[in-house]
């Protein structure tokens, strides 16, 4: 049996499925400001601060009701205001006490806010 951590030093990547390639490219590249690494017949590939994000167009897609991708940010209020200024609407979750910006704090020093991409993928920003 191998006791070596097989993937502990490997860099993780992220995947998001979408239905409209052009709309997704604009959202992730222009609205969110991620850097386009390359594009091929299978995906639009962005760099998100050193993490690869593959945005993959698919024919049949149903977004999930939970977060599929998130970013940790140094100041959630500044980030939420900037995203709102870029036209992003934040999700209100029934039963969670969110502030006027849509930020929820589950514990001291932890904050999270949710928004969706054009295909309905639930995304988040968080501050720890």
Offer a few descriptive terms:
single chain, 128 residues, alpha/beta, 8 strands, 16% helix, 36% strand
How many distinct beta strands?
8
Strand order of the largest sheet: 1-4-3-2
| Main beta sheet | 4 strands, mixed
Into which percentage range does the β-strand content fall? 35-45%
Structural class: alpha/beta
How large is the count of helical segments? 2
If you compute it from the alpha carbons, what radius of gyration comes out, rounded to the nearest whole angstrom?
16 Å
Q: What is the ordering of alpha helices and beta strands?
A: EHEEEEHEEE
Task: Say what oligomer this is.
Answer: single chain
Report helical residue fraction: 10-25%
